[in-house]
Protein 1
Amino acid sequence: MAHFAKPEEGSWTEHYAHLGTGPVSYDDSIDPQWFEDEREAVFKRSWLNVGRVEQLPRTGSYFTKELDVARTSVILVKAADGEIRGFHNICRHRGNKLVWTDFPKEEDNGTCRQFACKYHGWRYDLEGSLTFVQQEEEFFDLDKADYGLVPVHVDTWEGFIFVNLADEPEQGLREFLGGMATGLDGYPFSEMTYRYEYKADVGANWKLFIDAFAEFYHAPILHMRQSVADEAQKLAGVGFEALHYEIFEPVAHSVVSSWGGMAPPSDPGMVKPIENVLRSGLFGPWDKPADIDLSNLPPGLNPANHRAWGTDSFQIYPNMVILIWEPGWYLTYHYWPTSVNSHRFEANLYFAEPKNLAERISQELAAVTFKEFSLQDGNTLEATQTMIESAVVREFPLCDQEILVRNLHHAVREDVNAYRAERDVAVTVGN
Amino acid sequence: MPIEPNVTSPSRSGTEERRVTDTLLPPEFADLEVWSDWILATEGERYAKRLGSTMSEMQAFYDAAFPRLEAIMDHARTVPLGGAPVGDADRNLAHLAFSLVTASFPVEAWKQPHVPDSGAADIPLVLEPGF
């Protein structure tokens, strides 16, 4: 029996009829050629979030981002005019990676007045212009104006910095984000800047980990032992139903809105002893940050307007999640593909600055709890990847609570198929 | 004239490394000093300590420290952040509390040091916010 209302079509999945209700293939997560085409069709055409404005606090602040999936590295920098600019991280002279320290594959950050190549000392200003060539008189008709850094498109939304690697993006960032962004405009992201960052290399296709966090059907089972025994039995018996799902346009970003959160719980016996003392847990510290006004949430949050609302998980196509928790904090996930069956997983937890040491200790419980859950999710995935690769089973059923799994694979399939069709036309014309 | 390459090279914004010394805990928590090997400044050290401990070792630490956690929180509420630096004793107390948080999962939930079915997986905390 449904505990929460579903659309009039009878299910969330049928409400989005283009998704169908049949079994789904995960060949898109094991086929190396498919992955090669995803690089072009998905990652070189989409806006990709690479960080937040707080990482670039002053003129000359910079960080680099490794984008293996697009076979490049980019530099993001706050230029002298206050604008955030992005460049491919390559020196125009001999192709050395321009910004790195000690290990070329490691991401870097810091503050500088200009960028100097380690190899022959060519220098570029913060706007990317070539300003100095070592022994310039030795070159032949070299005009420095022709050798600036190669720019990438950069734009921001609510403090999130996005890049687009296309020569000409198909749409601007705002249009790309569509109704997803409109519904979240004004959330106080900029007041939640106390950040915990996790990184891990995961032996599974990037989409499979997004799938794992895109449905909470798994939660009462996989995470059963994280709850006290009576509560775990109750949760498993009830199962999981979301309050609301939505798939946006023109790009298929999505949200799953869920109940939950116990801040504080009606019955202290529902939670573990340490949670009662620290007044914190998976849903974060129970006491909302005192200085942040959370009384008027933007309309995109708690879309079902339900009193038991606990969290909204926004999937921003292709590889980002913003998860906002009712008690007043948020986290992001990023899934950066490194091969058909591996990716770099990044998680960032953002809280209000703790006012005293007790608030910091409460946050620690939320952060550690997050890691315990993620370790369960992450290892399950590698078990999934290896068995999908066996190809013993090629089609898998999905329930209504897994609609966003269906949505992601559908959206990627659409993009790759469109790209392949364009490429085939180009080849035909070329012949 | 050769230029000095380091002059204009980007500088790394180093994350400052904190090391625990033998500094005492605040006086009212002197009873917890026998657990000073749990005063660990980084999440990586705390997690390694957990995985390297037996359940009876962790249970003993939990049984000693958990009953003091309310008092630790009462004290910690009087230590403001964001202004003057936190003193060593208070910092150590916080790191001890963080270790108790880490050890609470094996004790309260898993009945074993590592997360069930997590194998060799790890998700390291690469940026730990300072205080």
Protein 2
Amino acid sequence: MKNPVIERDLIGVLRLRKTLAMQIGSAVLMSGLVLLRWPTDARADLSGMQAQDVFRIFGYGLGLTMLLLVPAFPATSIVREKQSGTLGLLLNSPLSPSAIYFGKLVGVLGVAFLPLLMSIPAACACYVMGGLSVNDLLYLYGVLMMLVVQLTAIALWISSVSESADGALRTTYGVVFLLTVVTLGPYQFAHGQPWPSIVHVSLWLRSASSLPAIMEILGHADAGLQGLVGTKGAPQRFTTIAAATAVVFSILTILRLNPRIFDRSRSQGIITDDRSRAQQWLRRLLFLIDPQRRSGEIGSYTNPVLIKEFRTRRFGRSHWMLRIIAGCAIISLGLTYLSSSGSLDWGVERVGGLMVVLQVGLIVLMTPGLSAGLLSAERESGGLALLQVTPLSPLRILTGKLMSAVLTTLTILLATLPGYLVMIYIKGSLRQQVLYVLVCLLLLGAFAVVISALVGSYSRRTATATAASYAVVSVFCAGPMFFWLGSGSLGHHTVESALLISPMAAALSVMEVSGFETYNLVPATWFIIVFITVILLVILTWRTQQLLLPK
Amino acid sequence: MGDQDPVVVTENLTKRFGEFVAVDDLSFALPRGRILGFIGHNGAGKTTTINVLVGQLRPTSGTARISGADCVKDAKKIKWLVGFMPDTFGSYDNMRVREYLDFFGAAYQIRPSDRRKRIDEVMEIAGATYMKDRYVESLSHGMKQRVSIARTLLHDPDVLILDEPANGLDPQARIEMRKLLLRLAAMGKTLIVTSHILPELSRICDTVAIMHHGKLRAFGPLDEILKELSQQRSIEIQLASPGQADQVAKLVRKLIGPDVEVTSSTTEGVVRFPTTFSERALANLLSKLVEANAAVSQFRELQTDLEDTFLAITQSEKTQNDTQPPAERAPTSKPGGAE
């Protein structure tokens, strides 16, 4: 029997213009990456080194494209149906939950595999250059296909438990970051230690990330091992873990597909102000900031939009901010302590590099989620019409909104400061370097907030705005790194020029992390980022006025 | 400004979206303390007019004033004079009702100490006090409408503009909404209310504006408009012998003229026709029917309500349009985002 869900989810999406744009875009991107390294003279490269270089850039580019593009489709697939009410119709139809699920899975996979298919001509070009075997290509595509299946299954489950499309997107990209980057962490510390069982567990944990598998296929050393002997077999382990997670999350999602999926308890709860005085004191002691107390009035001199933004965010209230800051501070301290006491041979620079990468990851993960919906959420919910009739000026509204994102980003970044303080304590001469790194991170945070808000202001849907902002910020952060990956043949000057727009690269060069110590990026990068951010801010101000002033 | 001075005035107000004329030369003046029912089909130009009045749209030509303030030149002043409730709620997640109202109170620069008192007052007026600790997104549609009205009252505006306040409400909630709007009018507020539920509107409005294809087709006190339209009366003849219906219809057509549309139903045993005959002429008609042995059991005039009035006005427009060549007809499609 034909599955109508596949027809709607796959055929319907394939007919869209944006799908065509995605296909053409990915084909152009992949071809561009290959052309970037295509030999320009008539000399033959018998060693195959140049072909390997092209293959690496192509492989990483394809992997990044999958990580950025794939989650956007399944993450919103079920939650959108839930919001529009069509999921209820599907559940009331004779289709079984598994038929609905597999219809959606096949539909999303069909769309997600498109960029992979479109990259095949570029892969063939890599093969033609020599130095590669068919097996290399097959392994790469095999791992990437498993990555797509894994991400799709996880994102569909997140979509089934989420209440809003943009929330589902944020969570999905968070999980992608967790799976791809954070899972690598424990092995970094356990590797080479005399605890075989912990090493074994952390090895399998890092196998949940596609990065070591892709790196092994592309002939790079194991991620972050810095010359230590790595363990082979990452593609096989990743395939096993990806298949297992896909099966588990598929079962979990199928179990969610019943009428109870619409249940949502939103009880007001017992308000602390209505409890006895003793209970009020006890709660104050336990919570520090009690989530169930009645909020006070917004102060006369406070921007009401700023407070509103904090209050309406899922984790924006003070009690949540307190917990997030405490968590960040503990993780930062723990990382620094572990790396400095457990692996003294690493050196403070390397620990600093790790922290920079983690903080950049945090910014890339957080800021689009915070900023993309600043204006698009108002447009989607109808709040914009209400703001328009209040005496608040467009500039005040924009300031309140931007500050809510900037303050959150800043607070969480500052919460990671204790780690740097430990580093300065260990090596006092790092004081200035740490200061420079913080400037780089702050500039990256400001840039990411502004560009996400600007990208989001052009969309009426928060989910679309969030996905687009994630893509833009990720490409901005990862793009220059492709030039760095090809530093072997691109030349120092070309790579340095490309890295000038990357605050992450600037921070890594300041920390003198291996591979970045030869580039002189500060303060040129600061000026460039400040200039770009100011320009974007001007455009955002104009855009906000355009949205809020009478048409 | 005196109590009888118009508080909402539009003069030759026109709004175009490209080639499409959403509001065409609209002029009216609404006195203080009135409840204006703004009626029209989808795309008639109601929401566009409202958006111009609240300062969200700039008119292409003409002016709109509220309490003497120009809706374009004095846009800031208008924000204080008008309380606007759009047809969408504008919900914010994770906010309790009190916090929601507190945000809008702060946006209207009400001092924190006054704001607390004011929020209590408006929630009391809107009958929303019991929901103060509830999350906004968990409220039912009727509850959200109440909170919305409380929000529009926060800054104590002169004029309340409510776009479809009864839309989607159940009968009980509609009755409560009606009482609430009447209470607001009793407080001296001037209300402009749009609705598709015409019987509901006729119970609360004292003034009516009927829009069709961007033009104002009728404006004035409800009673006068009903009376004006009832010059064309609808008469219904109930027959004791239903089989006579067709025969009686023929006779009526012969007596009042062949151009009049006389309808008959043999199953119901009724004959209906519109007429401008005087009472005396109608009495003559009845006696002639009786002379012709028609078994008339009832001869009565049908009551005209707002719905009939609206249909009469808009259908007469449709008939006129149908007789025109297509190029001269007003466009019926609506542009993006506007009515």
